[in-house]
Design a protein that fits this description.
Elements: H1 2-17, H2 26-35, H3 45-53, H4 58-67, H5 89-108, H6 112-128, H7 137-144, H8 150-170, H9 174-198, H10 203-224, H11 231-247, E1 251-255, E2 260-264, E3 267-271, E4 275-279, H12 282-300
Antiparallel strand pairs: 1-4, 2-3
């Protein structure tokens, strides 16, 4: 780690010494940081894939919001015209995750015009990160502007992320897939938190927030693989760990019940009859909201 930091210092020093009267801009420093090859941790792809599969799609969470009969509110979303503010791969990857969730939210509520704005921002960021080839904007646009295609959009979104994740791992840039995932999940939690705050009597929304405790642990675990070698992820991980402390005040008890078997479409399937009990109070949820708002503010600005 010291060698990486020393290398950064030398590169920045060389850049400054070329013109001692000119201080490096934030964009120049960001470019230097992005050009440094971060040493990849040795993690099994299966381990990462298993953790990723447990994290709900932003579309799934957006669907839950609509089912709770809450109204669409554009103010919850990140401004799609802010893409010029994201001047490093770190910021771009987080923003791409955020915009992916925002697209899902606009789509669920059939806000087609807003969806198109987010599609354009997503394409631009994906191109900047050299993963634009995974976004068939024509197909996604067609699906995103037709509410009858939600299942297809969910499938193509999940498939896209899996392909992107595999590609970034092959390119030794898997830290970016962690940022995509973290930004998308945090944005979904942010939107649920905002909606819950406006609807304090909706217990389902509070439970949805509390249920993210398990996901929180998985996201922090993923970041732990990278934070020693990536200073950006280390800073982000520190913020997420503070959020995790608030989630740890919530208890989720699983009541085990014997599974049963039933035939569905001619196939024998196992039905899980276990249930979960969430032990929490309003103070827990409010503390989580506060941390989520602070982290999200840092990510988008």
């Amino acid at each position: 780690m010291k060698n990486i930091l020393l290398g950064l210092l030398v590169m920045v020093t060389l850049m400054v010494s070329c013109d001692s009267k000119k201080k490096p801009s934030a964009d120049e420093i960001s470019g230097v940081l992005d050009s440094v090859k971060i040493e990849e941790p040795s993690i099994s792809e299966d381990v990462i894939s298993d953790i990723i599969q447990q994290i709900p799609s932003p579309l799934e969470i957006s669907t839950l919001l609509k089912e709770s009969e809450t109204k669409y509110d554009k103010d919850y979303l990140n401004d799609p015209e802010k893409i010029s503010d994201y001047n490093s791969n770190y910021k771009k990857a987080l923003a791409l995750g955020v915009y992916g969730t925002d697209l899902g939210y606009t789509n669920i509520y059939e806000q087609n015009q807003d969806a198109l704005f987010y599609l354009n921002s997503i394409k631009s960021l994906a191109d900047d990160l050299s993963i634009g080839q995974f976004f068939d904007i024509g197909t996604i646009k067609r699906l995103a502007t037709n509410s009858k295609n939600l299942d297809s959009l969910l499938l193509i979104t999940t498939k896209n992320f899996n392909n992107i994740n595999n590609y970034l791992q092959e390119q030794k840039r898997s830290n970016l897939s962690i940022l995509l995932l973290s930004g998308g999940w945090l944005e979904a939690l942010y939107i649920v938190s905002r909606v819950s705050e406006k609807n304090p009597d909706n217990e389902q929304l509070k439970e949805t927030i509390a249920e993210q405790k398990v996901i929180m642990d998985n996201v922090v675990l993923l970041m732990s693989f990278y934070k020693e070698n990536d200073p950006n992820i280390r800073q982000l991980s520190n913020r997420f760990e503070k959020l995790q402390e608030e989630f740890n005040k919530i208890e989720i008890k699983t009541v085990y019940r014997e599974p049963t078997y039933e035939v569905v479409d001619g196939m024998l399937v196992v039905k899980d009859n276990s249930t979960s009990e969430i032990i929490m109070n309003d103070e827990n949820i409010e503390s989580i909201r506060k941390q989520v708002y602070e982290i999200r503010e840092n990510i988008i600005n």
